[in-house]
Amino acid sequence: LFRSRSVALSQGLAWYNGNNTEATFTMPARNITITYEFVEKGSQYVNMPKLNTVQTPMEVAVPESVTSFKIYDDGGPNANYSDYCNGYLLVTAPAGKALLLTGVVISERHTDFMVPYEGNTDAKPIDYYMYGTHLDGGENIGGLVTFGNQMLVRFYSDYAVNYAGMEDRDRKSGSAGMP
Questions:
Q1: Between 20 and 30 A from 112 (CA), which of 1, 133, 154, 173?
Q2: Which residues of the chain have pLDDT under 70?
Q3: What's the CA gap between 56 and 145, in Å, rounded?
């Protein structure tokens, strides 16, 4: 979803460019505004944060003009996810729209997983399933649709063994869009 810019925020939140390079800055004591720049269809994506909390998820507001985008784990399009991931991404579609999540999760069986939730909290998993924990070689997400316009996505990994993580059918990422 974002042009090649990178800013690491407090609490481990980060935006990455296509080369997965990172720039950092110290958060000021006052509020700041970050302006996102959207790019052409097919190159729109966001990386899951490596570490944050359900109370402070990384938030992405999807504009009306965007109909699909990719969600990568913290390793981005070209690398495996990291150890000790516990990241939350809150995706908000325009009012009156729903979100559709598809793709494959390739992760260490039994310990690393992705869970999508309805709304902006972890109170209502969309289907009470931890994707990536049950099958070796990847677990198909299928097509999960929200009832409302928000979806919270959690990606978790333990201390060792890392795989490709969230991928779509061309083995690059999880995909989200508005049906």
A1: 1
A2: 1-43, 128, 133-137, 167-179
A3: 23
Residue matched to tokens 């998993």: 125
- Three-state DSSP at 10 gives helix
How many C-beta neighbours within 10 Å does residue 51 have? 15
Pairing of strands 86-92, 58-61: parallel
Q: Is-contact 48 30, C-beta < 8 A?
A: no
pTM of the model: 0.71
- Rounded distance, CA 141 to CA 167, Å? 10
| pLDDT value for 57 | 94
Provide CB contacts within 8 A for 2, sequence distance 6+. Answer: 15, 36, 37, 38, 39, 44, 45, 46
In whole angstroms, what is the distance from residue 76 CA to residue 63 CA?
22
In this structure, are residues 71 and 177 in contact, taking their beta carbons and an 8 Å threshold? no
Per-residue CA distances from 63 to 75, 93, 106 (Å): 25, 7, 29
Contact 166, 73 (CB under 8 A): yes
Q: How far apart are the first and last CA of the chain?
A: 18
Distance of alpha carbon 30 from alpha carbon 65, whole angstroms: 32
